Amino acid sequence: MGNLTKNLGSQDRNQSEEEVEVWSLVQPERESLEKLKRLSIRSGAWFRVINWKQRRLLDITMRTVDKVRSSLLLKVLAPLVKRLLQAVGGNVRNGTLVLMGKGAYDMMRSAAEKIVAVAQKWGNKSAKEWLDERFLRYLIVMNLPRNRNFVTIIC
After folding, report:
1. Residues 7 and 70 in one domain
2. pLDDT tens digits, residue range 59-104?
3. Residue 95, domain member (yes or no)
4. What are the residues facing 29 on neighbouring strands?
5. Residue 109 is part of which domain span?
6. Of the residues 90, 118, 143, which one is the last residue of a structural domain?
7. Which of 48, 67, 90 is the last residue of a domain?
8. What confidence category does residue 12 fall into, taking pLDDT thresholds of 50, 70 and 90?
9. Same structural domain for residues 67 and 134?
10. What is the rounded average pLDDT for all residues in the chain?
11. How many CB atoms lie within 10 A of CB 91?
12. Same domain, 84 and 129
């Protein structure tokens, strides 16, 4: 029992950084986890990246809670979600973009066009060049769950 506590204590620092990164990008809710599961099954990552015990843990979590509130469960799920996001999108941020889907892309495209129009009215001649994938990704990342008010301010 002492070794287990010692191992958990040393891993706690590494996991807390990982945990903050993952849960700042993905909401710990049933819908988000189910969508991540669907995407990872379609890409084959569900069976390739996590083992059967980890899959069962995610399944049980999705079946029993609407929103994960337990800090212990969040710590346990964070590395699993991170691995699935990396497998689906190549890295955690791209995986989150894939998870958000086409609707978020379309919404951010509209917001980006409005931002460019405002910048051009203010006299910025190079603003038209902003409409590229990098700017759209920036807007999507800024609109992730921790920044929900961003789109309502723009639109």
Report:
1. yes
2. 999 999 999 999 899 999 999 988 888 888 776 666 666 666 666 6
3. no
4. 67
5. 100-154
6. 90
7. 90
8. low
9. no
10. 78
11. 12
12. no
**Does residue 20 register a pLDDT over 90?**
no
d(CA 78, CA 144): 17
- Count of domains observed in the chain: 2
Cα angle, residue 9 at apex, residues 8 and 12 outer, rounded to 5°: 80
Identify the pLDDT of residue 14. 55
Q: Is the pTM of this model over 0.85?
A: no
Tell me whether residue 36 is in a domain: yes
Whether 86 and 107 share a structural domain: no
Res. 18 pLDDT band, cuts 50 70 90: low
At 131, list the tokens. Answer: 């409409």
* 93-120: burial string, b at 16+ Cβ within 10 Å, e else: bebbbbbbeeebbebbeebbeebbeeee
The whole-number average pLDDT for the span 46-71 is 93
DSSP 36-59: HHHHHHHHTHHHHHS-HHHHHHHH
92: enclosing H helix or E strand = helix 92-121
Domain annotation covers residue 20: yes
Task: Tell whether 77 and 138 lie within a shared domain.
Answer: no
Q: Is 139 left (phi over 0), alpha (psi -120 to 50) or beta?
A: alpha
pLDDT value for 26: 78
